[in-house]
């Protein structure tokens, strides 16, 4: 029987252990997609308690606590203390066995705080007090956490109207870790509610200095902001979409649809889909011209619980996997850009695992030999960023593409304690490949190539792909 979370955690063979300890573990972290709050990095935020850094904004934990019968006030309430919230989390942890939260929780305690104890109600107080004592030290600040995990680059998620003042402040402070913005223009194509769209376009007009009254004006304003993001080091865009949009449309139709929604009138479903289709192409062309990488996270049904959405707002733990028939639209969208000669580097992330093979085969349609792995299958995302989801994603990519060219893991997190997800991924990767070597499916004579493959997927592929 193996000890829980020892140095060879998840590494089931001797080859896997060597691959991880001698190659993957020593690689720095490139976190090319996350949701860290830039101001916290700029201000080198000091965390007042373990609850703030660990439970604040963590809808993964909130979902588990609610499922375990914990009242909402201990998740998101304002009338409960940090200790009371942590105590309820500690009560929940023993019930999370076989959920990735159990592994993440103990991996974070071990790597961030050096605590090699199992969290439960009996150990909760001593762990809480020990972590809080350490969080009071300078090296446990936001920047300190990034240094602790040997982070080299992080890419945050930012709206085109954002000032990026905290990215600028961080860079000018001389902080050695790069924090770069990522262009996330979802609101510029969210035309479902005319009043909200109009308010957003007015804000875009204000920050760009371009008066907007037509569709062409809006695109000009977005291009100006796109240029500004590029000046601040941006190299990626990201799009959170339910499904891919690839309706046929004419320029005249899109201009008329803009005038209609900007004028306060509700659009038909057909008009909404045409507008979104046009905007995806516009954004794709902008990214191609800059040499950026475009990312697409698709397949979530968001804000399922109307009552809780009204009470708490979005991103509070009430989203789930959706079922969408997207293959044809995805193909048509990519082909539309490719036909124009404007298909940039692309990463596709699915939330429904039934689309793993769909994406893995779609990649090969648009690889053009100019860049290794130009079209990427993104790592397991959200509900899939755990051992089983990662293995299924990597197996599909291995069988139908080139795992060797994969750009690897990211945190997709708001927390400064989420960097162990890279370790979790690297251990899972090494275990998969190590088994193949030991089973005679990869020749031992090619171990140097295998070693390089592990280092590439852990670090070098991303560094080269994004031109960091």
TrEMBL record:
<comment type="similarity">
    <text>Belongs to the metallo-dependent hydrolases superfamily. Uronate isomerase family.</text>
</comment>
<protein>
    <recommendedName>
        <fullName>Uronate isomerase</fullName>
        <ecNumber>5.3.1.12</ecNumber>
    </recommendedName>
</protein>
<dbReference type="GO" id="GO:0019698">
    <property type="term" value="P:D-galacturonate catabolic process"/>
</dbReference>
<dbReference type="InterPro" id="IPR003766">
    <property type="entry name" value="Uronate_isomerase"/>
</dbReference>
<keyword id="KW-0413">Isomerase</keyword>
<comment type="pathway">
    <text>Carbohydrate metabolism; pentose and glucuronate interconversion.</text>
</comment>
<dbReference type="Pfam" id="PF02614">
    <property type="entry name" value="UxaC"/>
</dbReference>
<dbReference type="GO" id="GO:0008880">
    <property type="term" value="F:glucuronate isomerase activity"/>
</dbReference>
<dbReference type="InterPro" id="IPR032466">
    <property type="entry name" value="Metal_Hydrolase"/>
</dbReference>
<dbReference type="GO" id="GO:0042840">
    <property type="term" value="P:D-glucuronate catabolic process"/>
</dbReference>
């Amino acid at each position: 029987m193996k000890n829980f979370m020892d140095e060879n955690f998840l590494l089931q063979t001797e080859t896997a252990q060597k691959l991880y300890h001698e190659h993957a573990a020593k690689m720095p972290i490139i976190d090319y997609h996350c949701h860290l709050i830039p101001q916290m990095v700029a201000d080198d935020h000091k965390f007042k308690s373990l609850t703030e850094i660990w439970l604040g904004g963590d809808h993964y934990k909130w979902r588990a606590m609610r499922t375990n019968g914990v009242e909402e006030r201990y998740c998101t309430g304002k009338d409960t203390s940090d200790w009371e919230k942590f105590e309820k989390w500690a009560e929940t942890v023993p019930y999370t066995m076989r959920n990735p939260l159990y592994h993440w929780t103990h991996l974070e305690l071990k790597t961030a705080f050096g605590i090699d104890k199992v969290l439960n109600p009996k150990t909760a107080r001593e762990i809480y007090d020990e972590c809080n004592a350490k969080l009071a030290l300078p090296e446990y600040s936001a920047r300190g956490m990034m240094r602790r995990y040997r982070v080299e680059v992080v890419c945050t998620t930012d709206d085109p109207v954002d000032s990026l003042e905290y990215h600028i402040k961080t860079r000018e402070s001389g902080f050695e870790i790069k924090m770069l913005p990522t262009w996330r223009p979802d609101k510029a194509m969210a035309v479902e509610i005319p009043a909200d769209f109009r308010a957003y376009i007015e804000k875009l007009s204000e920050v760009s200095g371009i008066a907007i009254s037509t569709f062409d004006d809006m695109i000009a304003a977005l291009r100006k902001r796109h240029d500004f993001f590029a000046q601040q080091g941006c190299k990626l865009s990201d799009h959170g979409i339910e499904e891919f949009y690839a309706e046929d449309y004419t320029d005249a139709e899109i201009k008329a649809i803009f005038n209609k929604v900007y004028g306060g009138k509700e659009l038909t479903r057909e008009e909404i889909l045409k507008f979104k289709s046009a905007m995806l192409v516009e954004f794709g062309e902008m990214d191609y011209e800059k040499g950026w990488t475009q990312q697409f996270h698709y397949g979530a049904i968001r804000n399922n619980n109307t009552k809780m959405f009204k009470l708490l707002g979005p991103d509070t733990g009430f989203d789930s996997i959706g079922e969408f028939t997207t293959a044809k639209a995805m193909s048509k969208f990519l082909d539309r850009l490719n036909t124009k000669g404007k298909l940039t580097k692309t990463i596709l992330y699915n939330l429904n695992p039934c689309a793993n093979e769909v994406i893995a085969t779609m990649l090969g349609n648009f690889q053009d030999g100019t860049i290794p792995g130009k079209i990427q299958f993104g790592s397991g995302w959200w509900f899939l960023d755990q051992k089983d989801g990662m293995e299924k994603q990597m197996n599909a990519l291995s069988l139908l593409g080139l795992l060797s060219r994969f750009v690897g893991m990211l945190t997709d997190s708001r927390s400064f304690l989420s960097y162990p997800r890279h370790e979790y991924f690297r251990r899972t990767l090494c275990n998969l490949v190590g088994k193949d070597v030991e089973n005679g499916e990869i020749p031992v004579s090619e171990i140097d190539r295998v070693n390089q493959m592990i280092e590439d997927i852990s670090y070098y592929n991303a560094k080269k792909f994004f031109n960091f």
